[in-house]
Amino acid sequence: MNLLHLARPDDFDKLAPLVAAFHAHAGIEQSDEARRAALMPLLEGIPQGVAYLIGPRNAPVGYIAISFGYSIEMGGLDGFVDEFFIRDKVRGRGMGSEVLMTLLPALREHGVKALHLEVDRDNESAQRLYKRAGFEPRESYMLMTRTR
Amino acid sequence: MNLLHLARPDDFDKLAPLVAAFHAHAGIEQSDEARRAALMPLLEGIPQGVAYLIGPRNAPVGYIAISFGYSIEMGGLDGFVDEFFIRDKVRGRGMGSEVLMTLLPALREHGVKALHLEVDRDNESAQRLYKRAGFEPRESYMLMTRTR
Question: Is residue A138 part of a domain?
Answer without folding.
Answer: no
